[in-house]
Design a protein that fits this description.
By secondary structure, the chain is mostly helical. It contains eleven helices and no strands. Among the domains are: 54 residues, no CATH class; 107 residues, no CATH class.
Length: 242
């Protein structure tokens, strides 16, 4: 019996060793390899297939987009410096998010108002300002009206902005009558400045033009005391022209 067990164990061990040797045997692939040639014509069909297009189209940003991003980054840096990075939360975070848009809108509005001299009140309310003149009315005032009387009436009714308007038109009228400028409705104040050859008159006219632009087109309300200070520049120029 003992011999039988030994024989069985020997047979099993031999079978295991043989199977291990058989599993470690090396097999060689002797099949023929065919070399594939890829031509330009083969690539054309892939170039025209959108599934093989891995290039992401980059949309070019507009000038206003780049300007706003630059402006927004500046505002963010300012508030990060004040409050610290990542500390703004809740309502403060909302305010900081909205502020760049409000500031940009305000900047654009002020630029339009300054360069185009647009009456902002008329834009918002849609009402016509009775103290705003078109070129035809301005021409009528200079050629047909007694501007000194209009100035007195405006001062009497405490319409000081309107009085400054009349003072400026009176200066244009005197310059035109003295052949120092050639007044025309389509000309700008800068045109008249360039036409004046005398340096002292040009300097004084630049001064009253600056006052006129701030008071009339800038819509700065002035009181009687401020008006008395400003009107001296107009009267001084008019006396010099006379």
């Amino acid at each position: 019996m003992r011999k039988l067990k030994i024989i069985i164990l020997f047979i099993l061990f031999s079978t295991y060793v043989y199977s291990q040797q058989d599993s470690l045997s090396i097999h060689y692939d002797d099949s023929k390899i065919e070399l594939q040639q890829i031509t330009k014509d083969d690539l054309k069909q892939y170039k025209g297939d959108s599934d093989f297009n891995y290039v992401e189209a980059i949309q070019e940003e507009s000038f206003l987009t780049r300007l706003f991003r630059w402006f927004n980054n500046i505002i963010i840096k300012i508030f990060e410096y004040i409050f610290g990075v990542g500390t703004a939360t809740g309502i403060l975070k909302f305010i900081l998010t909205v502020i760049p848009y409000l500031l940009l809108a305000t900047l654009i509005f002020l630029l339009l108002k300054f360069f185009l001299k647009v009456n902002s009140r008329n834009i918002i309310s849609g009402q016509q300002n009775t103290t705003t003149f078109q070129f035809t009315e301005e021409e009528h005032l200079i050629k047909n009206e007694d501007l000194n009387v209009l100035i007195e009436n405006a001062i009497k009714h405490q319409k000081y902005r309107l009085a400054i308007r009349y003072y400026y038109l009176l200066s244009l009228k005197k310059l035109n009558e003295s052949n120092l400028i050639l007044w025309q409705p389509q000309k700008t104040n800068e045109d008249y400045i360039s036409e004046i050859k005398q340096e002292h008159l040009k300097s004084d006219f630049c001064n009253i033009t600056r006052i006129y632009d701030y008071v009339w087109y800038g819509e700065f309300e002035i009181d009687g005391y401020k008006f008395e200070t400003l009107k001296g520049s107009f009267e001084s120029l008019n006396k010099t022209i006379n």
